[in-house]
Amino acid sequence: MKQEKHEKKRLKPTQILMAEHEAIKTMLKVLENLSERLEKSKKIDLDHLKKAIEFITGFADRCHHAKEEDLLFPAMEKTGIPRQGGPIGVMLTEHEEGRSHVRAMKEAMDRLARGDEKAGLDWARHARAYASLLSQHIFKEDNILYPMGDSRLTTEAQEELEREFERVEKEIVGEGKHEYFEALLEELRAKYC
Fold first, then answer.
1. What pLDDT digit, counting tens, does each position of 45-56 carry?
2. Domains in the chain with CATH codes
3. How far apart are CA 14 and CA 145, in angstroms?
4. Which of 21, 56, 142, 146 has the smallest C-beta neighbourhood within 10 Å, fewest atoms?
5. Are 100 and 61 a contacting pair, CB within 8 Å?
6. How far, in Å, are 35, 52, 58, 148, 173 from residue 191 at the CA level?
């Protein structure tokens, strides 16, 4: 029997980022459920809070946001989509706001580890704010910014972005780390969703 070769369907850079958004949205649900437990003074394994933050900083920020901030957004700017006063500037501001919430979550987690029981409420407050921010942020990227970029980026620019995304995965995030983050997410999803 003759076997046909099936070429792996190539995704546009924005489709890759949208797939990553799905993983991030799952983590946002985990954050909401962790927050609810903390607000009800239920016992939480601190290791789970650490893993949630590790996913956010390693996958959402170091991997996903690096692809946007260092590669996609500059490519989009070259097509005439403005940073200042435009949608790219808004996304960058929101990335910084999200990082601020994550720093506050880390600080609250450290206080919680030292026995400060009120720190759980602080963690929950910042986790909920982060989840709300990112939910709206992802919607805007998926439905406004990415289609805008897709309509302007040439095939050559898209292919270059694909190659650069692969470089980010290998050199910045690290070989095998994507799979590690997927497993970490699945562990927390199974426990909290």
1. 999 999 999 999
2. 13-192 (1.20.120.520)
3. 9
4. 142
5. no
6. 14, 12, 20, 37, 26
